[in-house]
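Exam revision sheet. Question 4 asks you to relate a sequence to its structure. Input first:
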Amino acid sequence: MSGARPSRQERVLVVEDDPTLRLGLTKALRSAGFQVDVAKTGREGLDLFLADRPDLVLLDVMLPEKNGFEVCEEIRREDDDIPVILITAKGEEEDKVRGLRLGADDYVTKPFGVNELLARVDAALRRRRKREVDSTLIEVGAAKIDFRSHRATRGGEPLEVTALELKLLRFFLDREDQLLTRQQLLDGVWGADYFGTDRTVDNFVNRLRQKLEADPKRPVLFVTVRGGGYRFQRRPDSGA
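Answer key, structure tokens:
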């Protein structure tokens, strides 16, 4: 696969008082395609969180004004879904346990590598997306999808969707903003043993466009990437 990662919609709030680590985290996340907001103190981090909810928070434990535990606790009073990853000192098991009990989703221990950090960020966001997909009702474009009952509506009217269309939609939702090749879609939705063609994928994507896009001829949810495949954007890029 190529070296460049696709641009993402997800935004990460980094709350870190160490300028060197803060700069390193910001560079790594932006290189991975994330939007990044930064705060130097616990109070500043909490204010940024409350003003403009991010998709994930990277939160150091040792912070001036408000420590990471206090910030995490206040975040959880406001929102119990946005992932929080704590940055802890090596060997401080009590910090890890306390943070997890306060509602943190994960932690990284100093010193840590960029690849480990990005893997934990991706995993936390993936779990959040899966929780969204597994919730009772999901809104996609103008439609409302209930994956549990396999029912859908659009504008209050029933929308006919097949089990395979829902499976394809779920696959896209779990991988929002990722470039997916037609082969990946075939393997993931139809199975590696299925002898389908690229046209099979195109036909089903077109069916989803007809049912979910405001203008199927100008899709903004299921975007074709020339020579690559498809990218699903639940929150379309307004700059496109």
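Marking note for examiners. The CA atoms of residues 1 and 181 lie 11 Å apart.
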